[in-house]
Amino acid sequence: MNKFVPHTFAINSYQQVNFAITTKCPMRCEHCFEWDNLNLHETFTKDELKLIISKLQAKGLAHLSLSGGEPMVRFNEMLELIRDADRSTEFWVLTSGFNLDLSRAQKLKQAGATGVIVSLDDINAEKHNIFRGHNQAYQFAALAANATNQAGLLLAISVCVLRENANADFLTAHAEASTAMGADFIQWLEPKAEGNYRGKDVILTMEQISEMEKAFVSLNHDARYRHIAPILYHGYYQRRLGCLSAGKSSFYVDSRGMVHSCPFCHSADFQIMDWLNNADKKGKKISACPSY
């Protein structure tokens, strides 16, 4: 709507920025797009994180997703980042669920967070744990979802749909389970050959994509599934409309401070602080999505 109303200052110039605030993570997720940066020395101090967020907000920022690594590792600092930021931006936390109990969820709510996106890549606990590289990953995700609900935060459940799961049976069962966990919406992601998947044969086939798209339309629009939480499937629209936001109205800042068009399209265009501190922005262009 901001494209249709008059305004004289920056309002939502950037719809969404995904900001990895830490390199630290207790997981070893199979698809991790931060794999090369994991558990290195932290790039930014708390004050530097605050400065980056304030400068992004000054440009007009609707939605900031705090990720990592695992952002819950820097929980106290993250609380301060959210609490001290301007209220014009919605803050979401992207997490495996690690260490997100009711007390911490309530603190996030009190600080001003909008919601939490919890990754749940398989409804079978053992398979999810193997995929995430941690024997308590499923337990963390389930407890985090419950805590998020109890604290009054919005809850999204995110799943990276692997080849063996790109079928109606899995997707329906996952949607049912996510809804039962209290999800306000569900997010489907496709595996990309980036991070730990770089150079690996993980991209879904057209037949698998077709199965996902059919399930997506059915679960969102068939009256039989009216009880299912809304499903967001980026690939469905990107294949039809192109990626209209990556590198334009949204981008990704990795845990080393490099700016990319999105977490799944690593372009490493420049350092975020160089861009924010440089009055002359020539040559500081964010790459568009190469896939769509």
Automatic annotation (TrEMBL):
Q: Name one Pfam family in it.
A: Radical_SAM
Domain of life of the organism encoding this protein: Bacteria
**Which keywords does this chain's UniProt record carry?**
Iron, Iron-sulfur, Metal-binding, S-adenosyl-L-methionine
Q: Which residues form a coiled coil?
A: none
Give the CDD domains listed for this entry: Radical_SAM
Required co-factor? [4Fe-4S] cluster
Extract the InterPro entries matched here: Aldolase_TIM, Radical_SAM_PqqE_MftC-like, rSAM, rSAM_sf
Q: What is this protein called?
A: Radical SAM protein
